[in-house]
Specification:
It is built from 13 helices and no strands. The protein has 2 domains: 11-168, Four Helix Bundle (Hemerythrin (Met), subunit A) (Up-down Bundle); 174-251, Winged helix-like DNA-binding domain superfamily/Winged helix DNA-binding domain (Arc Repressor Mutant, subunit A, Orthogonal Bundle). The radius of gyration is 20 Å and the shape is flat. The protein has helices at 11-17, 25-38, 41-49, 52-60, 69-86, 95-115, 122-129, 135-146, 163-168, 174-194, 200-209, 218-225, 229-251. α10 (174-194) packs antiparallel against α13. It starts with 10 loop residues before the first helix and ends in a 10-residue tail after the last helix. The relative contact order is 0.11. With 261 residues, it is an all-alpha fold. Helices cover 64% and strands 0% of the residues.
């Protein structure tokens, strides 16, 4: 599948992907069903390119982690392609609603891999700490699909700057560079020390239930620890909340913010 070329300077890339039309819900459903049955590359290309702008939007949310925007977008595109391949249009929801997890997951996996943090079993831990499938995520993706056109050349907030102006320049000023350097260090320190806040029992449950390639059952772990199945579930839930609270300021670029409902 040939996609627009993404280089260090992303201005041309952003301009190019803005030329691909968004699909209406009916068009997407028709093409998705056809691809689901026949696996035609042209249909796959249409489904991917019509959603490339959303990948840029998601990638921009992770800019504070100190990675190049071009790399984040590329990883998000890989996630989008996986989503298109696995998407079942007969389930009754839009492609981008399904693809959001794949896009974010691919970007998050890249960040963890690049920064050298949580190397072992990072996928399972990342899924619990980074991603929440809350109603606001669904509303956001549905709102994106409801737009007739998203122009990256359009002014932002009725001002003179455009989306391209904001995204194209990857060279941070001195203060921004210093801030991103600090954020990067905070991310490494936060994730590396997150498990240390747990007591031994909580850490054991997280390791065997969340981080393990083959998670142990609640019942089996309960028998090992002399606890009921429900008690193990409660401890696991409380431990995950502790980890999220520990990492929340880091994920928000050093700023605390209310957890979404």
């Amino acid at each position: 599948m040939t996609l627009p070329v993404l280089t260090d300077s992303i201005q041309n890339y952003l301009t190019e992907i803005n030329r691909f039309p968004l699909l209406s819900q009916d068009e997407e459903l028709r093409i998705s069903k056809r691809y689901y049955k026949a696996r035609g590359l042209e249909d796959a290309h249409t489904l991917v390119t019509s959603n490339l702008r959303y990948v840029v939007k998601v990638a921009f949310e992770f800019r504070s982690y100190g990675c190049r925007m071009a790399d984040l977008i590329q990883e998000g595109n890989i996630g989008l392609m996986h989503a298109v391949k696995k998407f079942n249009p007969l389930k009754g929801f839009r492609l981008i609603t399904y693809a959001t997890w794949w896009i974010r997951s691919s970007i998050q996996e890249f960040i963890l891999r690049t920064k050298g943090i949580v190397r072992r079993n990072s996928r399972a831990l990342k899924k619990h700490l980074f991603y929440k499938n809350d109603p606001s995520t669904v509303k956001e993706t549905e709102a994106f699909n409801a737009m007739n056109d998203v122009s990256l050349n359009a002014p932002v907030n009725d001002g003179s700057a455009t989306h391209i102006d904001i995204l194209m320049d990857e060279r941070p000023g001195p203060m921004l560079a210093l801030e991103e350097s600090r954020n990067d260090a905070d991310v490494k320190k936060g994730v590396a020390s997150a498990l240390a806040i747990l007591n031994p029992k909580e850490r054991l449950i997280i390791e065997k239930r969340v981080m393990a390639d083959e998670p142990e059952s609640l019942q089996g772990l309960g028998a090992e620890l002399g606890l009921t199945r429900e008690r193990v579930r409660q401890i696991e839930s409380a431990a995950i909340k502790k980890l999220r609270a520990c990492l929340s300021p880091v994920q928000d670029g050093g700023r605390t913010s209310p957890e979404p409902a």
